[in-house]
Amino acid sequence: MANKTIIYAINNPYDFGIGYISKKASEGLLNMGHSLNLIRSDKQVQDSVFDESLRRIIIDHLQKGQKLDVLHVWANHGHKTLEYLSCTNNPPLTVLERASTHIRHQSRVLHEEYRTHIIPGNVIKRMEAEYDLADIIIVPSLQARNTFPENLRYKVRILPFGIDTDRFKPIDTKKAPGLNVGFVGCNTTRKGLRYLLEAVKQLEAGGLKINLLLAMGRVPPNKIVEFYNTLDVFCLPSLEEGNALAVNEAMACGLPVVVTEECGLWPGFDHRNGIVVKPRDVNSIKRALMRLTDREKRAEIGKRNSSWAREKDHSWETYAERLSDIYQKRVQV
């Protein structure tokens, strides 16, 4: 495998979400021997400002005659940069990573839920232009890939996120009496929290003791592992995702999960890992939680999930290896 000179750009300085993903990816690429220039903002800035800054960095890099094999940029961060490179001679391979579904699919889902348009039209237009300009588009699940139109799928590659099992693992914690159900998410509407809240409300009215524990916003790394381990069941009834990191982390901590297919599940996920419910379906969530009141069933699924997460196929090292393989060749139209 030939090592590459890579500029990897993302407008996110944080150690969670896509910022965390980019950190793990860059660490893996460097460990493999690639020459990597990681460009991140010191703080969240307007995407168009970041894009213009990246474009100038690329122009300066090329005008100095410096080698560049690959530009890897996250979606909504590189329209002008990709546009510039498309007009140059012998441009580098351009890779666009999209952590979620196609922007129009995401917009439709959010519009259905909020009853108003949440994603501005200029953002949709900019991201669709990026899809057209990039040589390769990376998404984290088959669910995400299937939201792209047929004329783009030839360039879409599926790359599920990894799991840090040194960090996310079962630990001994004291659990409260009853069924401890947990939820992790920032954008609670997109992640279907209101349907979980209603399901729990109805189950409690029927006499079932449930402790619903919520982790919303940014949670310190040491606290989130403790949080998972206070739970009996993890539930993420998302309406739209790419490949929900929280589901992977909960499974690594030995939890059965209640999820929708919209969570962008890992290949091979089935009833042995948890229960798949329909999005926006309170009754489906209620039935799943009722099934998981069985302590032995929870223990069986949780033990399997902890082992599953530790398979090499699900590691961040494998993520970086697959990403490196994607860099090796251009898509043939």
Give your account of this protein's structure:
The two termini are about 25 Å apart. The mean pLDDT is about 95. This protein is an alpha/beta fold and about 325 residues long. It has twelve helices and eleven strands. Helix content is about 40%, strand content about 15%. Helix 7 packs across helix 10 and helix 9 packs across helix 11. It is globular. The longest helix has 17 residues. It has a six-stranded parallel beta sheet with strand order 2-1-3-4-5-6, with helices on both faces. The protein has a five-stranded parallel beta sheet with strand order 8-7-9-10-11, with helices on both faces.
Structure summary:
The protein is of the alpha/beta class. The protein has helices spanning about 15-30, 45-65, 80-85, 105-115, 120-135, 140-145, 195-205, 220-230, 245-250, 280-290, 295-310, 315-325; strands at about 5-10, 35-40, 70-75, 95, 135-140, 155-160, 180-185, 210-215, 235, 255-260, 275.
Feature tags:
333 residues; 6-stranded parallel sheet; 11 strands; globular; 5-stranded parallel sheet; alpha/beta
- Could you tell me the radius of gyration in angstroms? 21 Å
Q: Span between N and C termini?
A: 23 Å
Q: Assign the structural class, choosing from mainly alpha, mainly beta, alpha/beta, alpha+beta, or little secondary structure.
A: alpha/beta
User: What is the number of helices?
Assistant: 12
Helices and strands, in N-to-C order? EHEHEHEHHEHEEHEHEHEEHHH
Widest sheet, order of strands: 2-1-3-4-5-6
